[in-house]
Amino acid sequence: MIRTIEGLRTRLAEARAAARPTAASALSPAEPTVALISTIGALHEGHEDLIRLARDRADIVVVSVFVNPLRFATTAEFEAYPRTPEADAALLAGLGVDIVFAPDPAELLPRGAETTRVTAGDLGLRYEGRSRPRYFDALLTVEAKLMQLVRPDIAVYGRRDRQRVFLVERMVSDLFFGVEVLSVDTVRGEDGLPVSTRVGMLEPRELAAATRLPRALEAAASNADRGVDACIAAAQSSLMGEERIRLDYLVVVDPRTFLPVDEGHRGPAVALIAATVAGHRFIDNTEIYIG
User: Fold this and answer.
1) Pseudo-torsion of CA 237, 242, 246, 252, nearest 10°?
2) Is 47 a catalytic residue?
3) Quick one: 33 exposed, middle or buried, by C-beta within 10 A (0-12, 13-18, 19+)?
4) pLDDT in tens, 199-256
5) Model-level pTM?
6) Catalytic, out of 44, 47, 265, 280
7) Which of 80, 145, 204, 282 is surrounded by the fewest CB atoms within 10 Å?
């Protein structure tokens, strides 16, 4: 794993030179394509799909492993975040990742909390941002730094956090980064829940409660032909009676703006849900069509 910015730049230059076709010339430089996948470690099956897509689409695959301290409300929360560096390194090596960038916070954020930031604006304070007001500004700030350092052609994300994907796409467009943003379908277990480290922390009864969340999204999709209100009501009804679930939000948004749709909306939409089960936060979403 590369720990320093200088080491990253050196390794990237070497990788680009090695991947450049011998037939390239000064008149027609066939530059290799680079894909970036940014993570905060504790990698799982969902990350594997991101890497496979990147491997298919690019000559060089760069994965960052960085637990971003700006995303956490307290130092205790930052320190408590699970870190599995040996397992992460083994997984990445097995998938043929070319470069793993795993800097310390002082390397990527030398001024700490005083760093210049990218803001997500009003949308960054909705949904996930309402519960975690630091989250999206912190996320976009580090994403912008990584894109500036790696200069990727492609950046790959998972669709489990659709708000993140939307905001990254908007940032890339607004700041003229020239990066193609790709997203991969959520990897789910047999119980329907998105694969994550949180699932393994649940007791059986808690797990059974958590599985109601994807079923609520299924209910929303099944009732989408009846309009937005019926769609949301069906999802809420499927959660009734389960005291272990503390619902944070359940909303249907327009994928073009990520703002809530009104009752007259017709066409594509995205249903978003977030809840806490036994102290663990879960987010999920599904695409629906309101007829």
Assistant:
1) -20
2) yes
3) middle
4) 878 999 999 999 999 999 999 999 999 999 999 999 999 999 999 999 999 999 999 9
5) 0.92
6) 47
7) 204
